[in-house]
Design goal:
Layout lengths: L2 H12 L5 H12 L4 H8 L3 H22 L1 H20 L3 H14 L1
Helix pairs in contact: 1-2, 1-4, 2-4, 3-4, 5-6
Organism: Symbiobacterium thermophilum (strain DSM 24528 / JCM 14929 / IAM 14863 / T)
Function: Might take part in the signal recognition particle (SRP) pathway. This is inferred from the conservation of its genetic proximity to ftsY/ffh. May be a regulatory protein.
Pfam families: UPF0122
């Protein structure tokens, strides 16, 4: 997964755990595609300050995922749903039942 996509996904899950400032910077840089210079100019700080805070925010998001694993679990469930859909499309009921059982085991 590309870094931008990964950070966006982590932000979807863990963004509320960041400070408001961290959320603003991640949103501006990754979701609104502003450059470091644009953000720095708008905030009246150095480009380096913005860069460092974004990197710390990224590290915090990665740390939350490492500890909680919600994104990995979400992706695993999406894969199981894909397997279930494929099995149903093939009319492979035994494979569909296995995928469904795996999903139910999580509930």
């Amino acid at each position: 997964m590309k870094d931008v996509q990964r950070i966006a996904l982590l932000f979807d899950f863990y963004g509320p755990l960041l400070t408001e400032r961290q959320q603003e910077l991640i949103r501006a840089y990754y979701l609104e595609d502003h450059s470091l210079a644009e953000i720095a100019d708008a905030d009246g700080v150095s480009r380096q300050a913005v860069h460092e805070l974004i990197r710390r925010s990224e590290a915090a998001l990665q740390e939350y995922e490492q500890r909680l694993g919600f994104v990995a679990e979400h992706q695993r469930r999406l894969r199981l749903l894909d397997e279930l859909q494929e099995a149903l499309d093939r009319a492979d009921l035994s494979a569909a039942r296995r995928a469904l059982a795996a999903l139910r085991a999580e509930a």
